[in-house]
Amino acid sequence: MKRLLLLALPLLLVLFGPAPAWAVQAVSLIQIDGVISPVTLRLISNAIDRAQADHAQALVVQLDTPGGLERSMRSIVQKELNAEIPIVVYVSPTGARAASAGVFITMAAHVAAMAPATNIGAAHPVPVGGGQMDKVSAKKIESDAAAFARTIATERGRNADWAEKAVRQSISATEREAVKLRVVDLIAENVSDLLVKLDGRTVKTVKGVVTLRTADAPVKKVEVGFRDKFLNVITDPNIAYVLMMIGMLGIFFELSNPGVILPGVLGGISLILAFFAFQSLPINYAGLLLILFGVILLIAEIKVVSHGVLTIGGIVSMILGSLMLFEVPEADLRVSWWVILPTVGATAAIFALAVTAGVRALYQRSSTGYSGLIGQVAVARSPLAPEGQVFIHGELWRAVAEDGAVAEGESVKVTAVEGLTLKVRKATGV
Fold it and tell me: SS3 of 219, please?
């Protein structure tokens, strides 16, 4: 009996003793850095689904964003509000921000936290493409965004008045002000500090009330796949802009030199990737048309001699179009000057080289055919008095001397070609 109790003791400890460390549910973590776009929506949606499938007790979204597309932001907020596990948005690292669309995403979380020296706010809606709207339309969009911000804040028990002002007046707050104003819940130095401060906090999800036990919880980072990393890279405005320019140049060279193949293949792939990226970015079509017009002017310079007028016009058109392509307040959604100037400069230089080569070929003396013989030096193979034979380019030609008799072996220069007869003169200095 005693031996039986000793054998059963480990089993009793497992069943009724304290839970071992490995029994603590993990916390999933995903890092979101950059513009809110359809790629961001895909990343967060997949992270929520994976965290729920792994039975994680919470998903931490480490956020640093200047804002982004309103459609993607609304879809992300819907995912947060309907998540079955607690969503924690953590504006981090130090120096990060949750601006514009990031305000809505942060306030929609079950728990909102910020790192030291971070900020949140400036959520005034901006029309796609950066164009100007009439006052009625602008007011409608602003009121809609303000109502959306208020309802999110009210749902999560946060400061609805501040949320509305962030939309209507573009106000912002530091991490300390945000906690004081009940915009976010807490300040955490890092992820480890965040988990300690989350421990014991009770949140309400669509499945009911959940108490977080995160103090000793392991962190499972949600890895971003190659496909999503690639899509995230090409949706960067600078990358999309460069892809578009490469695509147009590739197609141009393929049309100019049919059969080369490689420029056409690279140009086609680049254009397709650029158009995919443009679907995720606030494109100003006036800017896009200016860039296309600039390329057309550069192409026209090859066909029409304008003494540089078309080239200058093309360069100016491309620069203006590049500046207008993503005309929005967020710097991260605009093409950088450090990308525009080298790209436009390289494009103009390529076209200038093409024009120069074309002009040089136009005025260059032909080296083949009858016209290619004019100016060439031949050797008399028989006396020219005035008719005889000369040897040139490995061939014997009938020749007529225009300036008197020419002895055999003397050098002569071809002055004209009449049928199969060369007109020659004595060559001097040869």
Answer: strand
